[in-house]
């Protein structure tokens, strides 16, 4: 693992709904020199400053409570304010946690990797130390990716659904999703799109939720609690599966990655990357704590 002593996140502008459009970063994986500066090298012991690159996802691993970032140069764990690189260099355009502690991801291989281009759906069962191709290697770069107990849903220009990570069905969706999220328990799927926030029970039929504004990112904290990042920079929260919403008093900034969960006392925790900073909030974005 490599500690990144300069906590530098080279995040790009989102435009209307973000750099998550399916063409973003296409053809500019780590092996092709996208972003300035050298990325962290797998297995290096150097403590030199290093760039993380674009951040495409943020989660808290429930197995150990550590915040994990999916970045242009691979996985990064946030440990006491430091960023520690884990595993090989892979441009992780899509990333999600699956039941059973599995990490699922997609994107582009780094220099020296034996993964295909694009990597398709890849899996790690050792917290990102190594990755194996499950399916669609050389075919799919899922920029939006989510998983629940019953299905994996990804968008690579088409909406695809799989029950086993190997065989896929192509479905329709009213608008291309920038972000996808699956509710724990119910398996309900959210999609943040330019047509609004869409909700589906299984990915086959969709309804548009009434929301205060368009959202660039969405996440479920539990089976009824949704956190979203509005395009005006405010965090918005629903405790009733999208029937009603509250917004933060002031904008938190341009959110490029968002995750959510519940704390032990039942508070809604949102994890977010804003500009060059990793933040945490438990009051809907009214106050924030810097993690890195």
From TrEMBL:
Q: Does the keyword Signal apply?
A: yes
Per the UniProt entry, the signal peptide is 1-26
Record keywords, A-Z: Signal
DNA-binding listed as a keyword: no
**Name of this protein:** Photosynthesis system II assembly factor Ycf48/Hcf136-like domain-containing protein
The organism named in the record is Nesterenkonia jeotgali
């Amino acid at each position: 693992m490599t500690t990144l002593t300069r906590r530098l996140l080279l995040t790009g502008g989102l435009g209307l709904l973000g750099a998550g459009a399916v063409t973003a970063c296409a053809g500019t994986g780590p092996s092709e020199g996208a972003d300035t500066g050298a990325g962290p090298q797998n297995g290096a012991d150097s403590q030199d400053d290093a760039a993380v690159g674009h951040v495409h996802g943020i989660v808290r691993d429930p197995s150990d409570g550590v915040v994990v970032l999916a970045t242009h140069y691979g996985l990064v764990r946030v440990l006491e304010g430091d960023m520690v690189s884990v595993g090989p260099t892979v441009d992780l355009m899509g990333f999600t946690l699956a039941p059973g502690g599995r990490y699922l991801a997609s994107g582009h291989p780094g220099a020296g990797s034996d993964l295909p281009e694009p990597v398709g759906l890849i899996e790690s069962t050792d917290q990102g130390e190594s990755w194996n191709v499950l399916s669609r290697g050389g075919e799919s770069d899922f920029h939006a990716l989510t998983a629940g107990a019953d299905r994996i849903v990804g968008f690579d220009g088409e909406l695809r659904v799989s029950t086993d990570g190997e065989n896929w069905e192509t479905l329709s969706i009213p608008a291309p999703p920038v972000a996808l999220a699956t509710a724990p328990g119910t398996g309900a799927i959210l999609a943040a799109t330019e047509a609004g926030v869409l909700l589906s029970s299984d990915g086959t039929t969709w309804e548009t939720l009434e929301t205060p504004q368009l959202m660039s990112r969405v996440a479920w904290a539990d089976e009824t609690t949704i956190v979203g990042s509005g395009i005006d920079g405010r965090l918005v929260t629903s405790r009733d599966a999208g029937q009603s919403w509250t917004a933060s008093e002031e904008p938190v900034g341009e959110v490029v990655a968002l995750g959510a969960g519940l704390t032990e006392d039942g508070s809604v925790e949102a994890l977010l990357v804003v500009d060059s900073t990793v933040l945490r909030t438990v009051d809907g974005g009214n106050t924030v704590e810097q993690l890195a």
